[in-house]
Amino acid sequence: MAKKVIWIIVIAVVLVSGWYFFFKRPKENTTATNKIETYTVQRGDFLLSVSADGTLAAAQYLDITSEVSGNITWIINNGMNGAKVKKGDLLVKIDPTDYQNAFSQAQLNYKNAELKLQQSISTLDSQRKQSEQDIKSAQVTRDNALLQYQRAKTQYEDSQKLYKSGAITLDQFETDKTNYETALNSYNQAEANLQTLKATSQMKLQQMEKDVDLARVAVDQAKLNMETAKRDLDNTEIRAPFSGVVGNVNVSVGQRVVANSTVLLSVLDPSNLELDLEVDETDIPKVSVGLPVRITTDAFPDDEFSGKVKSISPNAKIVNNIPIFDVLIGIPNTSGKLRAGMSATGEIILSEKKNVLLVPLKAVKRVGRRAYVEVLKDGKIDLTRITLGEDDGTNAIVESGLEEGMQVVLTPNSTGTRSVRAPNMLFFGR
Predict the structure, then answer these.
(1) What is the pLDDT of residues 10-41, one digit of tens each?
(2) Range of the domain at 364
(3) Contacting residues for 210 by C-beta, under 8 A, at least 6 apart
């Protein structure tokens, strides 16, 4: 047990000695210090960004075609580019003569179809009333015949009894029998006439109801034709779908165009532009919608414009075997200087901080997750632990451990961070 305690004490002494040797021993102050490269800790602006090039495009852009065929009779601004328009302004007129005639004929056809429908409905109503009257009259005839038949039947049955008893003559019996048979035939005929009238009336009404349905279909079709003709007539006047500027005028007055085949002109909104940037997959996790973007152009090298990240493509495209994401930037063109088609560079600002304490990464030494710098003071070098914030690959923000004006030693002949290993420790054991 005593041996174990001794070994533990020896190990502890070695560890403490190693720690002191590495972290606390004073650095030798020789003439070599004159050759040490140092950096004076100072405050500055920190910027972390991603840049890419692209071409400006209008956020709203539309090629205008004609939905009807015909000869052009009028073009805005006499066919010259650059006309400013508001939503609904007239852009192009197509000769409306044929379409006006077609619309007038369609209106007339629609009115005729409605008239025929009303006539069919009126005829149907009249036929219903007439059928009801005829059936009632036939029912009355049938009911009277039934009453005559019942009376004749009773008289005939009584005559049979009386004739057997000798109370009436054969002539009287034959007369009552004939009257009975005549009444029966009249009743049967009246019933047959009633049923035939009902069936005939029902068939006639059903046919007239079909005629009414067909007339309604004809009205609907005529209305559809009229609406189509009206739409074609309206389409002879082509209007601006949104406010903007006219460009790319491709036609002239007198030219005949075919529906949906020729681009007449274009309308674009220059007040809001877009810039499509291609961002590498390694940078895309840092980019989010709403981040500010600085825009520079070759056309205006001394000007800087502002924008924001508008959208990020959910999937990558492969460019030279590298996954690339499209990032769309929205740019309010408040100055009016920018134009669609200009080449531009977009710098997405991932992080920007003003007047922060900065230190070069080449001065930083790391032990695990801890960061240290060598501070030169009064000819001595002390290893000082620091806390770092964001870095841009060259400089890092110092959150604690250093003060402005301190001299830190830069790692010689190095362009990046150097990791420092703790001194070797000797362990003794059985």
Answers:
(1) 444 444 444 444 444 444 443 344 578 999 99
(2) 2-45+354-419
(3) none
